[in-house]
Amino acid sequence: MRVLVVEDEPDVAEALTWGLKAEGYVVDVADNGIDALWKATERPHDVIVLDVMLPGMDGYQVCRTLRERGIWTPILMLTALDEDLDHAEGLDSGADDYLPKPFSYPVLLAHLRSLTRRALGARPTVLTAAGLALDPAARTVTRDGVPLELSSREVAVLEYLLRAVGRVVAKTELLEHCWDVHFDGDPAVVEVLMHRLRRKIDAAGAASGAVVKTVRGQGYVIRERP
């Protein structure tokens, strides 16, 4: 999942970036409203964490402008302001959720998971298909009840495919959502990771057949049934 963090306090931005990357998110950062608007417009994100008090444009203006431009990426608004009117203004400007500072990091993660489920139409808290079960909160994966030892990147890619179950996902789409914005290596890294991921999945349920299918010239797909 790719998240845009918009925060002008360096310590807070660094802590959020470190924590989200540790959870398998790909993180872009902006420290002012102008850059936030540009980054949110130029590159697709799965969710935006948006502070209210920003230089250039405040969070309310950024949110309102994105909605006016037809960009409906889920937005979690962060603010030190905790008055009811501030809460109302954030939601009325187009934000999907609101979290006052200071906040608990586990609560922030829970809010992000909730927004992602709503955005992708996948309501269950545990993603399941073809014998796979992935718990985004615990970052655990099983196949036919057998635990899988996956890297954080492998979990991120598998989660993206499970949220798009039944739809073919292109390699470029996986790169955009599951690799860092600064990645400039060989796009074949997707094929290498997919080969490793499928080997681990198939070894846990060989009798059930392959789960992740390659659609030649298009990408990868997980069907409801293997």
Quick structural overview:
This protein has helices at residues 10-22, 33-42, 59-68, 84-92, 105-120, 152-163, 171-178, 189-203, and strands spanning 2-6, 26-30, 47-51, 75-79, 97-100, 127-129, 132-135, 140-143, 146-148, 212-215, 219-222. The chain is of the alpha/beta class and 226 residues long.
Helix content: 40-55%
Strand order of the largest sheet: 2-1-3-4-5
Helix and strand sequence: EHEHEHEHEHEEEEHHHEE
Which band does the percent of strand residues land in? 15-25%
The description of the largest β-sheet is: 5 strands, parallel
First-residue to last-residue Cα separation: 24 Å
Structural class: alpha/beta
- Gyration radius from CA atoms, angstroms: 18 Å
Low-pLDDT parts are none
Question: What's the number of extended β-strand segments?
Answer: 11
Rounded mean pLDDT score = 86
Quaternary status: single chain
Number of contiguous helices: 8
Shape, per Cα inertia axes: elongated
